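Dear support,

I submitted the protein below through the web form. The confirmation email said the job was done, but the results page showed an empty box. After a refresh the structure appeared. I'm attaching both so you can tell me whether what I see now is the final result or a partial one.
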Amino acid sequence: MADQNEETSKISESPESVSLADTSAEKATQGSDTDLEVEDPEKAFVGITGAELYLEACRLMEVVPVSHFIQNLAKPYINLNHHGLGPKGVKAIAIALVSNATVTHLELEDNCILAEGAICITEMLRENSSLQELNMSNNHLDTAGAEAIASLLLDNMSYLHTLQLSGNNFGEETAAYFAEALMGNYQVKELDLSHNEFSEKGGQLLGQMLASNTALEILDLSWNHLRRKGTVALGTGLRGNGALKILNLSWNGIGNEGALALGEALKVNNMLVRLDISNNQINDEGAKKLCRGLKVNGKLKILKMASNPLTMEGATALLTSVRTNPKSTMEKINISNVLVNETFIKLLDLVCRMRPELDVIYGEVEGCITKIPRQHPNPMKVIQNYLKEHNLRLWDFFRNIDKDGNMKIPVAAFRRAMMQQPSIPLDQVQIGELVRKLDRNRTGIVDYR
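What the results page shows now:
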């Protein structure tokens, strides 16, 4: 017991002892009070690679090897989500990946690897030159894990461009680590920090980061606690940001003041194409404030505002802002919980004639319950009848719409083409139904291969 306490004391005094920079057993087995002692650690991993290296690491860590990892070591994608690896199990994997040149995407979600496992992974990434996508979500990484990851990003020492860190108990204090690291990082293009504990101060720090970061294209901050002040700072950062394309701020309680800040940002930001502010306590007043940006913005394509307390007034304001903006490139607005009326439907039909690519997802239509629903002919039947009359094949029909000839048509382009087919009498509702059938997984692409 005395020896074990002495070993634990040494580890707590030297957290930097966890290192995978070379493949010696001495460095590969430090950092845990349960690691095994070996008589000649310098020779433990000499001359072995791949599966053999992993098996030896498992033996020394006293963990059961994961057969799925061994079978896929020579492939670019390995999914080890929900495998119960723990810190020691992921350390063995890290040792095996130090010099691996084939794995580019690694999934490690929900393995309880803790900060200790995160440190091993970051040490590996300082040497590995092939891993580009990494998912370490839901692993209880906490502050120490955040610090290790941020240090790696700050030093630009990895080839990662996609990093998922959702649900890791990252508190307010960790925002400073990520903000500092990302200010100078030029590698990471996609970052998921959703389901953590960032609050207003965290939002302010990340907002400062956005003002200077030139690489990040996708940022997910959903399910945090950014509130008004945090979102105002993010909006300020967005004004001068020239890289971010997709921002998810859903479930953050940003309110009307947050919507105002984002509206002001959209007046000048010419890069953001997708914004999700669903479930944020934004009412009609907040929607109108957001519209100040939508009336002049020429880049945003997708706006998600579902589960906000909007009424017809806010919905009409959003639609009108698109209608009156000659530069608008809007393709989708999601206000799926809003009850609309016939007046809104008529306005939508008018806007869609001008902008056939636009898709507005709304709730029920007021009064329709008491009316006999309007019957729409099956859109596929309408197209088939047209093709039969003109002696055409379905393949030819799609190829005529497919400008690039790659057998994949963006939904917006498909909508536009269908609305502009005078010989095929389909209205907006039928085209929407057709899109849902042809793009069942909602990828935004009609794939007719």
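Response: this is the final, complete result; the empty box was a page-load delay. The mean pLDDT is 87.
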